[in-house]
Amino acid sequence: MQSFQPKLLKFLGRIHGVEEAQRALEIVRRTNFESFSLDLIYANPGQTLAELAADLDSALSFQPPHLSAYNLTFEEGTPFQHEYRAGKMSSLSEDEEIAMAELIETKLAAAGLLRYEISNYAQPNCHSRHNSNYWRGGDYLGVGAGAHSYHRNTDHRTGRRWSNEKNPAKYIAQVGQTRQAITELEEVDRNKAAAEFMFLGLRMTEGISPVAFRERFGEFPWEAFPRIKDLIEGMLLEVKHGFLRLTKKGLLVANSIFVEFM
Q: What is the CATH number of the domain that holds 240?
């Protein structure tokens, strides 16, 4: 969905309109799918807190069991990033983004959608199984043009990641000739796997299990990453119910914490 505001959909370059997306959601509701999800993008340049509140109210009117809310980021190499650097676009202030994040969590929690990952909220038993597996460092197999896959080696400490040809026509031709169309292959060593275990697992509000980390990598997280102790003292990380997780304060600056493990 991304927004129920026509001007924001236009800004984001979406090819669908509000009415079209609303009709799709109405069809989903009438068809009685066991579960469905929709996503919103917030912290768009010029977006107000009132506009976000209206988007959330519109989304919740369809009673989604799962909702993702992503804050807009200016990714390297994108048109948004070029316009931002050229001074043609400005981001919201940190205080505005925090206010929006807090509004999202409050409104969704009141509707029974609890935060289980930085950008994801769900009713009980409606968490995304695919994404949870990804954040937990599990294996996944991507099939088709542009698909990505990951498989852990038998030692469970290292792994292999690969991706397929993105162009559908080239993908089909290559598969027809060699039965595979892998274009990129990466061997994930122990250190990189440990780092990924941390910064992907910490996306989950539950956090990561220090015991599971030790079983997999032979030491506790704070032994592999001494900076964890400083982050705990700074009240950005905490150990609770046997898990190492981001604090409420840490969730607001998660990306700066993840950099510590990369």
A: 1.10.10.920
Q: Report DSSP state, residue 182.
A: E
Q: Are residues 147 and 70 in the same domain?
A: no
Q: Which residues pair with 163 in a beta bridge?
A: 148, 184
- Model-level pTM greater than 0.85? yes
Residue 31 and residue 97 in one domain: yes
Per the listing, tokens 């769900």 go with: 122
Torsion sign (Cα): 201, 206, 209, 210? positive
CATH number of the domain encompassing residue 51: 3.30.750
CA distances from 83 to 26, 90, 249 (A): 36, 9, 31
Domain boundary among 99, 127, 155: 127
Per-residue model confidence as pLDDT tens digits over 50-71:
999 999 999 999 999 999 999 9
Which tens digit of pLDDT belongs to each residue from 114-162?
999 999 999 999 999 999 999 998 999 999 999 999 999 998 899 999 9
Write the DSSP symbol of residue 219: S
The total number of structural domains in the chain stands at 3
Please report which helix (H) or strand (E) contains residue 196, including its range: helix 190-201
**Positions of E strands within 77-119:** 114-117
Which pair of tokens denotes residue 241?
A: 């119910």
Backbone angles phi, psi at 190, to 5 degrees: -60, -45
